[in-house]
Structure formats: C-alpha cells, structure tokens
Amino acid sequence: MNRVRQFRKQQQLSQFELAKEIGVARQTISLIESDKYNPSLELCRKLATALKTDLNSLFWEESK
Description:
Elements: H1 4-10, H2 15-22, H3 26-33, H4 41-50, H5 55-60
Helix pairs in contact: 2-3
C-alpha cells in the first residue's frame, strides 16, 4: 500500500493537478492510489518531489 493519496490531499492537490505537474494522465494517479499500477522508479521520484516527501515515506515505511 502506498500513501500517494494521503500526501496529495495534504498538499491540497487534485488528481488532475498532480498528474499535470508530473506529466501523466489523471487516470495514472488514480491507478497508483488504488494499487492497480506499479509506477517506474522515475515516476516514483517525480511523485515524491511533487508531494514534498521522500520515496520511503511515500511507498515503503509503515504509517505512524
């Protein structure tokens, strides 16, 4: 499970706004948030940068 949705909402971004910022379709963000799409490392880095966090917090660390 990833925390893309959680971090996106903290940044007050819509799926469309986040997608536009990192250069993907809104549907891609939806699929990532629902764990139906495994993003490339490059896309993971773009997400982490756009959401002002790091890869570990976004994808691997357990919620605190």
